[in-house]
Amino acid sequence: MAAAQAGLPVRLESVAGELPLPVFVGITNELEMRYPNHPSTNESQPHILGSLTGSAPHPPADRPVLRHPDTSMDKQEAWSPPRSPGISPPCSPSAYRSYPYGAQRNGTDTLLAYDGKVPGRPSVPQENSSPSHYSLKLQSEQPVITRGASVERLVERAEIDYSDEPWRITEEQREYYTNQFRSLQPDLNALIMGTVAKNFFTKSKLPIPELSHIWELSDVDKDGALTFPEFCTAFHLIVARKNGYPLPETLPATLRPGFVEPGVVTVPPSEATEPLIVFDDNMMPGANQLEMGSVDLQMTSRPGVTAKQDRREESRKPAEFSPKRIPDPHEKPIQRVSTLKPDSPQELDANMKSRTRPRSYSSTSMDDAMKKVEEPPTPPPRPQKTHSRASSLDLNKLFQQSGQGSRPSQHSLSAKSGWLPPPPALPPRPPATQIFSFLPSSEKSSQKAVQQPNFADFSKFREEDSTLRHQGHAPQKPVRRKLHPESQSATPPSATPYSAATLTKSTQRPPPKQKREIQMAIRKNRETNAVLTRLNSELQQQLKVVHRERVTLESQLELLRPVAST
Amino acid sequence: DNVCSGELKFHYTVHTSLDVVEEKISGVGKALADQRELYLGLLYPTEDYKVYGYVTNSKVKFVIVVDSSNTSLRDNEIRSMFRKLHNSFTDVMCNPFYNPGDPIQSKAFDSIVSTMMVQAC
Asked: For this UniProt entry, what's an example GO CC term (chain B) (predicted)?
């Protein structure tokens, strides 16, 4: 609260207190500018006058549900008084003050209010400061996160390339999502059940209504479960939300399961980052519009000034980040996160969340930051939670795969390396690849991202995949994609032919190739070992927990028995 | 004030109509439970409006209150409205973040309901 309130004066004084990370600057600024509008007019009214008095969060009731940006745009003054009945006089000045930052603020209000409640207003002022400050400076400064919140590594990692197109999943993000999907469900073509997904996404600390809305947007087939693309969409939306982007009313085109990333498909894997960056830069104008279009769903017409501002900022951002992209793939995604991002998006998210939701999820930005700390460590524990269910799958699959020499769901396709697709398995593949056009693009993007050996462990796998693909090895596609109807039919038939083909192929290959294959197989086995040991340790921990629970239950039972008997 | 009192009136109407719904569904014995139709039809007409009922197999009840002066609404249309309601409700249920019993906050659901109501007018 205090921090949020501190944000207000910061904004007023144009002090770069908490600036959003450069990544979001261009885009988040405009978004955040919208957000602050509401709080600035409502709760921040008292603050705006320069006093740092701690004001209690604006009562949610004060904030009418503005679902239609149209009205808000026109009545910037009009709605502020209704919102904060007790603060009508200050409303107009603050409204005017915030007006230059974009009329879309009203839109922001509606965005925030789409849930109808505004819980933690104080958090908004913080955002006010950062976006306004940023917009004033129009530079991609390296903001210093004063909040000092813990870094939400998971979310950050995925956020890195957010700058130009928030609704477009980059290859790094997709890879990250793939890993997360695997942690919940080893088979990429299978579904994640609703409850599993719920537990997983709840860890992101977003309010339940927002998560509910995200689910609505991403579960396209309305089956109560998430396929891999749906999962990517949902995860991406969550990441976007945590970075301060308002949730769209409808699913942006780039996030639809059938979306094909233009330009990515045609880029040969060897070029890796270069073409991607160029493409992104080229796409900037289009991306801007795309992003703006999707974000604008909730907003009324943007003033031309702010739109241009955004474009400028966004164009700057890709320029800034394009060099970043190149080095990024060379590093591990986790390391890439700059200090800039860590806190501000979290805090912004906290502010956003607290602002838009009446729930107590984010009481203060600090609390949110603290809560967010939990998320970074969760990735390892996550598999833990799901292991009870998925572990059996994992092991079964592992054993199956190691037995057959192929592992459809695991990245370490030891036996598959160097295989040529067996003829009988070919027929299922083409339909599979045709159906989800975006898959090849994302696959290729993952290939590109993975080209560097230093990249995540899975890079080895992906490289092999790419090489395999170059050889026309299509079978992996059904394996790694959400083609769960196809893959399920394709992988079982392909699995057995693989094992048969391996033997024949390996004998036919020249020795050097065998060596390479053996080495790759060794690598795969090592990865498998690592995964298994991790699995083992997690299961051990689970066992301990269960033992403890059992002991406590037994003791309780004993306590109750004498009571019952007497 | 008018809106508030109107809402209250509708709340009251719907509440009393629940009794009629209960009556209708309890009238069928266990053997006929499967054959019981989901659409309950006109529950009871009053001066100002007509009340239609619909119950799902999981005992979730939908009640539609229609203005009596709106004579153009046919039974088929009411049935299709209930069907749409049922489908949207199922979609809401599929959302793991939705706890049954909570007020529905799904935008998709709201938009479908609003569209339906606009069409009926």
From this structure: perinuclear region of cytoplasm
Helix/strand/coil for A80: helix
> Does a structural domain hold residue B121?
no
Give yes or no for a contact between A24 and A109, defined as CB atoms under 8 angstroms apart: no
What's the pLDDT score for residue A551? 95
**Domain harbouring B1, CATH code:** 3.30.450.70
Contact call for B95 and A215, based on CB within 8 A? yes
In a domain, B7, yes or no: yes
Query: Nearest CA of chain A to the CA of B31: how many Å?
Result: 31
Give the distance from CA A414 to its chain's centroid: 30
Question: SS3 of B52, please?
Answer: strand
| Host domain of residue B19 | 1-116
What pLDDT does residue A356 have?
42
Give chain B's domain count: 1
Chain A CB within 8 Å of residue B108 CB: yes
Q: What is the pLDDT of residues A220-254, one digit of tens each?
A: 888 888 888 888 888 888 888 888 888 787 787 77
Query: Measured in Å, how far apart are chain B's first and last C-alpha atoms?
Result: 23
CA dist., res. A210 & res. B92, Å (int): 14
In a domain, B54, yes or no: yes
- Range among A41-50, A117-126, A251-260 with highest mean pLDDT value: A251-260
Residues 6+ away with beta carbon under 8 Å from A146: A17, A18, A343
Tell me if A222 and B96 make a contact (CB, 8 A cut-off): no
pTM over 0.80: no
Q: What is the pLDDT of residue A225?
A: 85
Q: What share of chain B is helix, strand, coil (3-state, %, to 5)?
A: 50, 15, 35
Of A481, A502, A478, nearest to A405 (Cα)?
A502
A115 interfaces chain B, CB cutoff of 8 Å: yes
Residue B39 within a domain: yes
* End-to-end CA, chain A: 53
Q: Give pLDDT, residue A504.
A: 52
Closest CA to A111 of A126, A124, A100, A122: A124
Looking at the complex, does the CB of residue B107 fall below 8 Å from at least one CB of chain A? yes
Could you give the C-alpha distances from A325 to A330, A331, A337, A458, A514, in angstroms and in order? 9, 10, 12, 18, 35
Query: Percentage helix, strand, coil, to 5, in chain A?
Result: 70, 0, 30
Inter-residue contact A480 to A416 (CB < 8 Å): no
Dump pLDDT digits (tens) for B67-93. 777 777 788 888 888 888 888 888 888
